[in-house]
Amino acid sequence: MPTVNYDTGGMYGSGTAGKTNSFNPTGFQSNLVKTTENAIPDYLNQMINSTYDSTVFKAQTAQRNKLASQSFENNLINPLAQRGLTRGSSINQMGNEFGKNLINAEQAAMTQEDARVSNILSNLFNYYQIPYSIMTGLQGSAQGLLGQRLQADSAAKQAQAQLYAGIAQGIGSLAGSDKRLKENIELLQTVDGYNIYKFDYIKGAKNQVGVIAQEMLEKQPDCVGIGDDGYYFVDYAKLPIKVQVYINTLVDK
Question: Model pTM greater than 0.85?
Fold first, then answer.
């Protein structure tokens, strides 16, 4: 099984498919995963165990308290003092009402803080998912290239098989190539170290092309066999493809 690599050449990394399957992230993606991994536990804990002690909430609380103090003084104490009503039930009633409003404002702020934490946590999970989504896409692209590669390899093997079949049909898969059966032997060409000869069979066809079995015993013994008649023959299908093509070309002529 071959291995195919799909590289974006940019910030999205590369993926491989085939004998090995892997994803090679960029520095940006690795940093994104690390950053979100470090931040998620803190915000998850804030959502589950709301302590409202984040820097943002504390700053907002301090600002609310400052504005409430100013409002209490400007809108309640000062007007009552000017009217000489700083004592009695009226100031207690207005103070209680102001306190309720302050509690409501605090509760609303806590609800907003819960929503803020939840939103940040959701975004963090989305950011954490980005490299995985990229990886899935790259792996899919690599798988597509692998499919094309395998299809091309299969087509090449089929073409080679057809070529072998044509060669075998032209020169015979198993051919009597014993030197003792031949005469008028003439060297035509040497292809990849294999001598190709023109010859006549002593008791048979003339102007034939092929190799000498005795030479093949030394060059490539696995392609040589012995027939029932005691003569050597050569399995041409086992010869190098260049040699087969060359012989077949001459046979066709």
Answer: no
Q: What is the rounded CA–CA span in Å between residue 211 and residue 233?
A: 10
Q: How far apart are the first and last CA of the chain?
A: 40
CA gap 85, 181 in Å, rounded: 139
Q: Is the dihedral of CA 133, 138, 143, 148 positive or negative?
A: positive
Q: Are 121 and 48 in contact (CB under 8 A)?
A: no
As a whole number of Å, the CA-based R_g of the chain is: 45
Nearest by Cα to 252 from 171, 196, 159: 171
Whether pLDDT at 252 is above 90: no
Which residues sit opposite 210 in a β-bridge? Answer: 197
Burial string for 118-137 (b: 16+ CB within 10 Å, else e) reads: eebbeebeeebeebeebbee
| Beta strand 14-18 pairing with 22-24 | antiparallel
Which is more confident, 133 or 232? 232
pLDDT score at 72: 55
φ, ψ (nearest 5 deg) of residue 227: -80, 175
Identify whether the C-beta of residue 232 lies closer than 8 Å to the C-beta of residue 217.
yes
d(CA 43, CA 230) in angstroms, rounded, equals: 88
Digit-coded pLDDT (tens) for 212-245: 999 999 999 999 998 888 889 998 888 888 888 8
H helix runs in 172-237, sequence order: 213-219
